[in-house]
Fold these 3 entries.
Entry 1:
Amino acid sequence: MATTKSGTSPAQRLLDAASTLFVREGIRAVGIERILSRADVARASLYQTFGSKDALVVAYLDGQDESARTRYTREAARLEDPRDRVLLTFDLAAKDAKRQGFRGCLYLNALTEFPEAGHPVRLAVDRHRARLAGTWAEELTAAGLADPGPTVAQLMLLYDGGLAGCKSARSAEPVLQARDMAAELLERALPRAVAAN
């Protein structure tokens, strides 16, 4: 793929432009022309690289998920306690909420805009949520919980609620409160020997 003098490919410029605009304004509210203008690429570049706006949206969501996974993996490597690694997801969400202007969860926002079952955007959101749930399940299993499923479901409710609350409160406080509730949940759910560490 061709790159500009700055070394950035048209595909990357399209993703960067879409990421900025989608977070700030929503996905369906942003037309192709605005993305092309901000990315400073020709329409043909979008269709040659992604094929459609929907495919660009999927690439945006998958890219956000990959970035979140990389960041989580890097920061979780510094933590020994699986409980702390679970709670790290809430800490990172609180930082992201502020950075993204308290727009709520970008994945839940995408589901609102693309509610159709089987839509590629919905499938991208499902991949992200399954990855997050899988991470929590692994950490809870490492902490000694034999059946992490119910606790993971409760964590997801707290996480979703905290992010939704950030949107209405225009503050990271709701996700931080959800973190405190998650810590209490983990204290109750995990075996005593682990909780005593």
Entry 2:
Amino acid sequence: MNRLNEPFAHDADLPWEPAGEGVTRKVLTYGPGVMMVRVRFEAGAVGPLHSHPHIQCSLVESGAFEIEIAGEPRRLTAGDSFLVPPDAIHGARALEAGVLLDVFTPMREDFVPAR
């Protein structure tokens, strides 16, 4: 189901999708210029180092993570946040089970079904 530009999203109506070993994601709201995604990690799960052309800002909603951005690791816990510049190599490791709330600009076309 494509929800492009829909103003409201009810969490209970949105599916969790596989996003790697021990990682699932839920695409929340989005439009061409922005996208919000909740990413759930089991303890020990890894979001491998990668890059993308989007600006990403993220909030640690729960849990504890080691976040690496451009070679600099940092331990972050609930309430902490981070910013990933375009094309910066970054990744995450869940030190304990938790959830990240990611916002991308522009939207991640690769996270939604073809329009």
Entry 3:
Amino acid sequence: MSATIYQQIQQFYDASSSLWEETWGEHMHHGFYGVDGKEEKDRKQAQIDLIEEILSWSGVEQAENILDVGCGIGGSSLYLAAKLCAKATGITLSPVQAKRANQRARELGFAARTNFQVADAQEMPFADNSYDLVWSLESGEHMPDKTKFIQECYRVLKPGGKLIVVTWCHRPTDRLPLTAQEEKHLAEIYRVYHLPYVISLPEYEAIARNISLNNIRTADWSQAVAPFWDLVIQSAFNPKAIFGLLTSGWDTIQAALSLGLMSEGYKSGLIRFGLLYGTK
């Protein structure tokens, strides 16, 4: 991974993770608001519902050894470890996140079967065929080389194991290339959230087919998760969050001021929420 983008991502999450946890809790990902996106629900419940809906969609009912690629502060990892009675390892670029995830694991009594560490998802420090479930929830968008990222996930997956990648995408471009305005919109998102680039869901599927992933399925859940960003915008305007923003640095403030980029992207159809599933 490029040293520059590595450092940018690390610094962004080092600075912003505690504020996010204080405002939203341990789950650093979208919520699920019904297939049509019209269900009103508690925001934390919506985030848990997203995990449950992904498990249901992918048919995952059990696992022994889980790898969470881009684990944040361990929200998904610890939830999956508890639900599936599994061991879980999480990797992140942020030392702050890894430390907090391990702290949360101790607080919840999961320290013996979970581990969180700083590692590059494109060069993972794990042996081939190590995990029966590789889970990546909203981290693919940060990967400078999407092919290498999927290849690494495949490499550490056990034969018969399951891979689930849920990530930000842009709309498919097979019929209509991205317009100059869309490219500009994406460039602003990349700048604010420290993303090298995103690709379309069909492009992820092509990568998966090229590495011989089996039983491949994809889904676009953009409509189901789109309300999330308007709710994040609302939450940013309470006094506690505003104070947290002012003390967390310019990167975090800039990201908060630019939340509308994602909301507008969903509404225009430019931003998509893609799911990829396959087995080894």
